[in-house]
Amino acid sequence: SFFVGTAGLIYKYKKTRGGAILSMAAGTVALTASGALINYFFTIPFYIAVMGFSMEGIVAATHAAGNTMVTGLPSLILWVFIPFNLMKGLVVSVIVGLIYKKLSPLLHR
Hints:
Elements lengths: L1 H12 L3 H33 L5 H10 L8 H35 L2
């Protein structure tokens, strides 16, 4: 929703190709920032407090997956969640860029 809200708000006022690119880039930044903050302050602490996970277990899982850069919660956000959300925003932006022109007539009925 952070991606869509940000991108939609910008594109509403700047309906050009450049506006579309700017809106999707801003949406990706909003998605990434909100994802980092939500995971840092809510999601990971929830899993630790309620689900019985440990930070050491999460770090061990990232190491087992090949990401040895993770040593705690801040580095988990930096080396796992931020790259994931940047990539997700890029993939969504590319897909939207490819299909929007064809879907536009249906959306504006």
